[in-house]
Design a protein that fits this description.
Layout: E1 8-9, E2 16-17, E3 23-29, E4 37-44, E5 64-67, H1 73-84, H2 101-112, H3 116-119, H4 123-128, H5 143-158
Antiparallel strand pairs: 1-2, 3-4, 3-5
Bound molecules: zinc ion.
Zinc ion binds near residues 15, 44 and 50.
Length: about 160
C-alpha cells in the first residue's frame, strides 16, 4: 500500500513519487484571467523524474509551481486554502480564484487526506460496480473507509 501523505502518483509519468522532496505541484492559470487557477497537478521534481533524460522539461506540465512539501500539514492547508481565497486582507473584494473547485477539492484531498491518493485510482471502478452503495458523501471519504476500499480492490485484483 502507498504510504499515505508521503508518496504520490505522478500525473505525468504515472510512476510513484517516493517522498515529498521528490514532488512538485503545478497550477494552470486561466488564459482569460491570469489570477484564476483552473487545474492543479502533482508531478515529479525535475531532478527525480523518470523522464529526465527523455524530455527536457521532464514531468512538468504547467508554468506556475511550488515544492510539494509546502502543501503538506498545517502550512499546506493554508497554502491550499489561499488558492481558493487569500482572505479579506489581501483581497478585500472576493474573487473566485479557482474556476474548477472540484479539481481543487481533489488536489486538497490528495495532499491532506490519508489514503485518498491511492483510493482515487479505484474511484471510477468503485462507482460503476456499486461499491459505494448508499453510503453518504462523508462516509466514503473517511480515511478508514478509503483504506478498506484500497484493500478490497487490491485483494480482488489478486484473485
Ligand atoms: Zn513523473
Amino acid at each position: 500500500m502507498l504510504e499515505p501523505l508521503k508518496k504520490w502518483y505522478c500525473d505525468t509519468c504515472g510512476e510513484i513519487i517516493d517522498k515529498p522532496e521528490d514532488g512538485y505541484v503545478q497550477f494552470k492559470r486561466c488564459k482569460e484571467n491570469g489570477l484564476v487557477y483552473e487545474d492543479f497537478v502533482i508531478v515529479h521534481h525535475k531532478t527525480k523524474s523518470p523522464l529526465k533524460n527523455k524530455r527536457r522539461d521532464a514531468c512538468y506540465i504547467y508554468d506556475s509551481d511550488s515544492d510539494l512539501k509546502s502543501f503538506l500539514g498545517d502550512k499546506g492547508k493554508v497554502n491550499l486554502l489561499s488558492l481558493l481565497d487569500p482572505g479579506p486582507y489581501h483581497m478585500p473584494e472576493f474573487l473566485q480564484m479557482t474556476s474548477n473547485v472540484r479539481k481543487w477539492n481533489d488536489f486538497f484531498m490528495r495532499l491532506q487526506l490519508p489514503y485518498y491518493e491511492e483510493a482515487r485510482r479505484y474511484w471510477n471502478r468503485a462507482s460503476s460496480d456499486g461499491y459505494f452503495g448508499d453510503s453518504n458523501e462523508v462516509y466514503i471519504y473517511m480515511p478508514e473507509n478509503l483504506k478498506r476500499m484500497i484493500e478490497y480492490y487490491k485483494n480482488e485484483d489478486e484473485i
